[in-house]
Design a protein that fits this description.
- The chain folds into four domains: about 80 residues, Alpha-Beta Plaits (2-Layer Sandwich), CATH 3.30.70; about 130 residues, Fumarate Reductase Iron-sulfur Protein, Chain B, domain 2 (Orthogonal Bundle); about 160 residues, FAD/NAD(P)-binding domain, CATH 3.50.50; about 150 residues, FAD/NAD(P)-binding domain.
- The chain has 18 helices and 24 strands.
- The protein has a five-stranded parallel β-sheet, sandwiched between helices. Strands 9-17-10-11-12 form a five-stranded parallel β-sheet.
- Helix 2 packs antiparallel against helix 3.
Length: about 575
């Protein structure tokens, strides 16, 4: 590395290593130990982010064509996530929050990188890979075709199982299709990634509601395992009988109608009640409707307490959505007779945080109530699963959700697993991760092969030497001008170019895994480090090692330990 080495004293086992200890003898010896990167640890889907970014970043060093490396990166990524183009658009990317690069300059733009690889896969018609061509005799039923059900079906089908997905609606996708507006998740992108799952042999049965058209007991008899991923379509009410009035919608009803092409006329001023991602989707959808001139989001807590992705809140503000905080609805009526809705609100305050770490809202009865008039009201306080026809498996709900054990099995059931919104996982990546976990448990149960545990130690930026890395500007996606987005539902975010993507991949620090910087080889004065062929990195030969720790101190990524 063309970087001046800075002598850093690191305390290990009570000793200090550094310039003053170069000639000293030490009982400690170096070894290469792979660590778990924080991006993967904080990803609910455990994506191999470091691996696919580094595969692209090292293309030139290993003599690979960039497209070849991106193609392989696609397969590294889709090992755990068959929807990279989807999650690259709608995931709130907790991985970036924990990225070690943030301790140096800015976190790696992982979400943008994921979107690029996903779009590359679609544009180049890359199929998903099976893990075996052997067809197993076991059959698995998946109830619901949202991200949890589809990921479960994908992981099982690629392992040779016969998988049938039962979907109550006419198309697959669940909330991805009916709960996210087209300007955030274009339908053609979703279709392309679902079709890849169909292409590996997953069978779909549409317009079939389990518990109504097909009973669960029959599935349990005819299939070797069942996965329940029914999603959450029941709206949480405001508690004021609001849905009995005209031009009052639940959030999921409104989004589903728009996504199905049945766009309602909301009039000039729309109020959206709620503070989550669905509320932001409702507000940003409403502001795009031809007759709507004003949209106001009312939330019963403060902006800091909003569960919505901050980027979606900022997008709503930039598009002209107004906000009213610390207010809760008390009543709504249309007494004027001209279609105008009068919504009465009460100001609130926050309580002390409860056991969950969240502050509750308390009505300020001493403050006067206030009224906002509007032409339409959208209540988006979230959804709960509908267990109609599935009463046998929903006897012991926890806060309205199915209770499962650490293997994904529904409590008290034999061979029936669950995931996604049915168990309270409301993020897309959480749903995908729960579908994966259930698939691994089903495979373990049917094949006897145990699910391997990841026992790697997590690597922090404090375990690394960030001064060895050069500063590098983060590559950002382009956002359409606000003047362009009003009154249309075209995509808002444009992906990185190939050149920008490669530059961003090279910003990855390869936390906890060798990326062939060569420092340990260059700075070992005792000849203990031997260079292997490209791609196999280095190995220690400790016959002449005196424990000086130069290799440890010059390893940027924290791959070397002294023990």
């Amino acid at each position: 590395m063309a970087v001046e080495i800075k002598k850093i004293k690191r305390a290990i086992g009570g000793r200090q290593f550094g310039a003053s200890s170069v000639m000293e003898q030490s009982a400690l010896r170096p070894s290469y130990v792979e660590k778990k990167p924080p991006c993967m640890d904080s990803c609910p889907n455990s994506e191999k982010i470091r691996e696919y970014l580094q595969y692209v970043a090292q293309s030139e060093a290993y003599g690979r064509e960039i497209d070849e490396s991106i193609r392989e990166g696609f397969y590294i990524l889709t090992d755990t996530n068959p929807f990279p183009a989807v999650t690259g658009r709608v995931c709130p990317h907790p991985c970036e929050t924990s990225c070690n690069r943030a301790a140096k300059d800015k976190a790696v733009a992982i979400n943008a990188a994921e979107m690029f690889i996903g779009d590359f896969g679609i544009e180049n018609k890359l199929p998903l890979k099976k893990l075996t061509d052997e067809r197993r005799k076991e059959r698995v039923a998946v109830v619901g075709s949202g991200p949890a059900g589809l990921s479960c079906a994908y992981q099982l089908a690629r392992r040779g199982y016969n998988v049938t997905v039962f979907e109550k609606l006419g198309k697959a996708g669940g909330m991805l299709r009916y709960g996210i507006p087209d300007f955030r998740l274009p339908e053609d992108v979703l279709d392309a990634e679902i079709n890849r799952i169909k292409d590996i042999g997953v069978e779909f049965v549409f317009n079939s509601t389990v518990g109504k058209d097909l009973m669960l007991e029959r599935l349990k008899r005819e299939f070797d395992a069942v996965f329940i991923g029914i999603g959450a379509y029941n709206n949480i009410s405001l508690g004021i009988d609001e849905l009995s009035l005209p031009n009052v919608f639940s959030g999921i009803e409104f989004l589903k109608r728009v996504n199905s092409g049945e766009v309602p006329d909301l009039g000039m001023h729309v109020i959206v009640i709620g503070g989550g991602d669905s509320a932001m989707d409702c507000a940003r959808t409403a502001i795009r409707l031809p007759k709507t001139e004003k949209v106001t989001v009312v939330y019963r807590r403060g902006r800091e307490q909003m569960p919505a992705n901050p980027e979606e809140v900022m997008a709503a503000i930039s598009e002209g959505v107004g906000f009213e905080f610390m207010a809760a609805p008390v009543s709504v009526n249309n007494d004027k007779g001209d279609g105008t809705l009068s919504v009465v609100f009460q100001k609130t305050r926050l309580s002390e945080k409860d056991a969950s770490g969240r502050a509750q809202f308390i009505m300020l009865e001493t403050d006067p109530r206030f009224t906002i008039e509007c032409s339409a009201l959208i209540a988006s306080l979230g959804q709960k699963p509908d267990f109609s026809g599935l009463e046998d498996i929903s006897k012991n709900l926890k806060k309205g959700y199915l209770s499962i054990n650490d293997k994904g099995l529904i409590d008290g059931e034999e061979g029936v697993f669950a995931g996604g919104d049915a168990i309270g996982f409301w993020l897309v990546t959480q749903a995908i991760g729960s579908g994966n976990s259930a698939a691994f448990s089903i495979h373990e149960r049917l094949s006897g092969e145990p699910v391997p545990a990841d026992k790697r130690q997590l690597v922090s930026h404090k375990d690394m030497h960030l001064e060895f890395y050069e500063p590098a500007e983060r590559q950002e996606r382009r956002i359409r001008e606000i003047t362009e987005v009003r009154n249309d539902f075209q995509r808002v975010v444009y992906g990185l170019s190939k050149e920008e993507f490669v530059r961003e991949a090279k910003r990855c620090l390869s936390c906890g895994l060798c990326y062939d910087c060569g420092n340990c080889f260059m700075y070992c004065s005792k000849g203990c480090v031997k260079m292997l062929q490209k791609g196999l990195h280095y190995e220690f030969h400790l016959e002449t090692c005196n424990g000086c720790a130069k290799c440890f101190e010059s390893c940027p990524c924290g791959y070397i330990i002294m023990s």
